[in-house]
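REQUEST FORM: STRUCTURE PREDICTION
Request ID: SP-0412
Submitted by: Lab K.M.
Chain count: 1
Length (residues): 246
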Amino acid sequence: MPDPTVPPPSSRASHRATAAWVLVLVVAAAAVAVTLASRPPGARRTVTVTGTGTVRGAPDTMTVDVGVQTTAASASAALSENNVKMTRLESALLAHGLTRAGLQTSNLAIYPTTNNQGQVTGFTVNDTLTATTHRLDEAGAALDAAARAVGNDVQLNGVSFSISSRSRLLGLARRAAVRNARAAALEVTSASGTPLGAPLSIVDEENQSSPVVFAPTSFASAAAAVPIQRGTTSLSVQVKVVYALG
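STATUS: Completed
RESULT:
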């Protein structure tokens, strides 16, 4: 049978911008708590199970902290040089698919540099932008252009990827978690010879994601477009379901 979680060929292009290929993986193991004994007279018999559903998708958003560090004899000179190079960096990013809305100053610091005797020898300026883009195919070229525009003063503090449209994927994960819980309940009732009744309560216990993250690094000496591997991101949902027993 065709997989209902895979978009039909005619709509695959439109889905690349949100999650590309999506694969639903259901975790088979489920915690099971059976309440068949030691119950008050007349109390309804129940079985409680926990199901987990996981969805994997291709990230469509990249976030990177990129900036400039400059040092000069005076604070004003260091700041002036930093401003010039930050303007070049921004222009390079904007020319390769990023937008003004996707650029945000996340750090600006000026501090003195000293020698071993504690004497001030100059001043250093750090200016960092948090850049967000959905055009991942151009991200490597954008980072390379930024490095070339700034030279050895460029700094790359980290890269991470995420999925912008989480609601649809979390919906798929929740449905998978509920199916997983029901399958576990049926295994228990089948083994005990007890009919499984209707669900009495369903609690969405938690959801979590595992974004692809790259450690801080420097790329000032890059000679070609920075290779960008987006990998996959997983979203997980866990539900606790209480079923009545027949």
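NOTES: Residues 166-192 form the longest helix (27 residues).
Reviewed by: T.R.
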